[in-house]
Write a structure and sequence with these properties.
Elements (H helix, E strand, L loop, with lengths): L5 E4 L3 H12 L4 E5 L16 E2 L6 H7 L5 H5 L1 E2 L5 H12 L5 H9 L1 H10 L4 E3 L1 H4 E4 L2 E4 L5 E3 L2 H15 L3 E4 L8 E2 L5 E3 L1
Parallel strand pairs: 1-2, 2-9, 4-7, 9-11
Antiparallel strand pairs: 3-8, 5-8, 6-7, 10-11
Length: 192
């Protein structure tokens, strides 16, 4: 029987990020995911992969999207999404019922977190198709959503999952058809 320092329950974006952060600190990590591989990813699988992030202009966007072209920069007004705007949006959408300490962490660490995810292999792109309108020849973003992961929600899971696999963490997955343990045929998974 193996021993682990950290057990992460789930296989979505938050779970993978928690597992990767624990691994960075030297913990031996196991993830438990109930869904089969083709359905895994929690709610992240069903999202567009867009994530709110505080940014103060195009330079911050270029940090998150390093392959942003000069043509994209020239034809886009990325604007800003300030911490105050993010705080206001959180208060509005939660009707002031969110834990203020957690909201503070979410908002103040959002840019650093997305940059960390980018360093872990998640690729971000501007959300031109859903969050930008062309006004007088320039795309203008609205609503506080400017970047999404390449491949949407499934791409977000894939990016984090590949890094997780690369670091050698174990992902235990329960197979719905059986309760016996079966070694997976790929990655570093054991099917339960």
């Amino acid at each position: 029987m193996s021993e682990y320092d950290v057990i992460v329950v789930g296989g979505g974006n938050a779970a993978f990020c928690a597992a990767l952060a624990a691994q960075e600190q030297g913990a031996k990590v196991v993830m438990l995911e109930a869904a089969p591989e083709d359905e895994a990813g929690g709610n992240s699988r069903f999202t567009a992969g867009s994530i709110r992030v505080v940014y103060n202009g195009v330079e911050d966007i270029k940090t998150l999207v390093p392959d942003l072209t000069q043509a994209e920069i020239d034809t886009t007004d990325f604007g800003t999404y300030t911490a105050d705007q993010f705080f206001d949006d959180m208060a509005r959408v939660t009707q002031h019922r969110a834990d203020p300490d957690l909201v503070e962490l979410l908002v103040t660490k959002s840019f650093d977190t997305l940059n960390w995810m980018r360093e872990k292999g998640v690729r971000f792109i501007p959300i031109y198709g859903r969050q930008a309108f062309k006004i007088e020849g320039k795309f203008k973003f609205w609503g506080g959503l400017t970047v999404e992961s390449v491949g949407g929600g499934p791409g977000l899971i894939l990016g984090c999952g590949l890094q997780h696999h690369h670091l050698g963490a174990l992902l235990l997955r329960r197979e719905r058809r059986t309760e016996r343990c079966i070694p997976a045929t790929h990655h570093n998974h054991i099917v339960l």
